[in-house]
Every structure is written in structure tokens, then in C-alpha cells.
Write a structure and sequence with these properties.
Structural class: alpha+beta
Number of helices: 6
Shape: elongated
Order of helices and strands: HEHEHEHEEHH
Radius of gyration: 21 Å
Number of domains: 2
Distance between the termini: 55 Å
Number of strands: 5
């Protein structure tokens, strides 16, 4: 494990979040799996062959990827198509609506993008009666 950490440090990938994944756990006995899980309690044990643990891995990667992100509502003037494009490229669009005065987005972004969108932040729109089923 130390060798992996050294390589990550050498290539400059040591600062980001990481997930330890052990593959081929289908080749281990139940006792061996338990020992591995006890030694590395934050690791994800998977089997590419059987699919065991893949759902857990996907959830964990999604959790790590969203760590430090914020959800915000913004109203971007039509003259700022560059920011709409940026939101689509580097953020997660939760909703998008074209209004008279610009593009209204609810977007999940990292802290860097949140700072760029801050001046366009608006209050979240209340759910319409159609959306709430009322």
C-alpha cells in the first residue's frame, strides 16, 4: 500500500480523495474477506466477475466525487453563454429553464465554480403545483 501512495505522490495525485478497492474478492474465502475488511475498514471489496460490491463502489465514488460540492440556483444572462457551457461541462445540472431574463440553472458545482457563479446566484424557485402534485 505504501508503494501506491509513493507513486501517487510522485505524479501529483496525492492531494485528491481516494477510494481503496480490492478486486477479485470472489477468489477469497469468507474468512479471508473478513480479515481484509477488518484490516482496511474503508476499502470497498468487489468482484468484477460476479459483480459483488459494484453498487457499493459506485455509491462510494459518487460520494467522494461530490465531496466539497455545493448546489446553487443561478440566473445567467443570455450574454453569458460561456458560463452555461461551463456549468454543463464541469457541473451537474439538476434543472435548467429558459426565462425572459436568462437561463435559470440549479447546478451542483465545486467550490471553484461556485465562486465564479456567485454573482449570479438567486433564490431557489418554489416547486410549482404541477411538480408537487397539488
Amino acid at each position: 500500500m505504501q508503494a501506491v501512495r509513493e507513486v501517487l505522490h510522485e505524479i501529483g495525485a496525492h492531494e485528491g480523495s481516494s477510494v481503496i478497492v480490492f478486486n477479485k474478492v470472489d477468489t477469497l474465502s469468507a474468512d479471508e474477506r473478513a480479515i481484509l475488511a477488518a484490516r482496511y475498514p474503508n476499502a470497498v471489496l468487489v468482484s468484477g466477475l460476479t459483480g459483488d460490491g459494484i453498487d457499493t463502489l459506485l455509491a462510494r465514488v459518487a460520494e467522494e466525487a461530490s465531496r466539497g460540492s455545493v448546489t446553487m440556483s443561478v440566473l445567467l444572462p443570455y450574454t453569458r453563454g460561456d458560463l452555461v457551457r461551463l456549468a454543463h461541462e464541469r457541473g451537474q445540472i439538476l434543472s435548467e429553464r429558459h426565462a425572459e431574463d436568462g437561463t435559470r440553472l440549479v447546478v451542483r458545482v465545486d467550490a471553484e465554480l461556485a465562486a465564479r457563479f456567485k454573482e449570479f446566484a438567486v433564490e431557489a424557485e418554489p416547486l410549482s403545483q404541477e411538480a408537487t402534485g397539488a
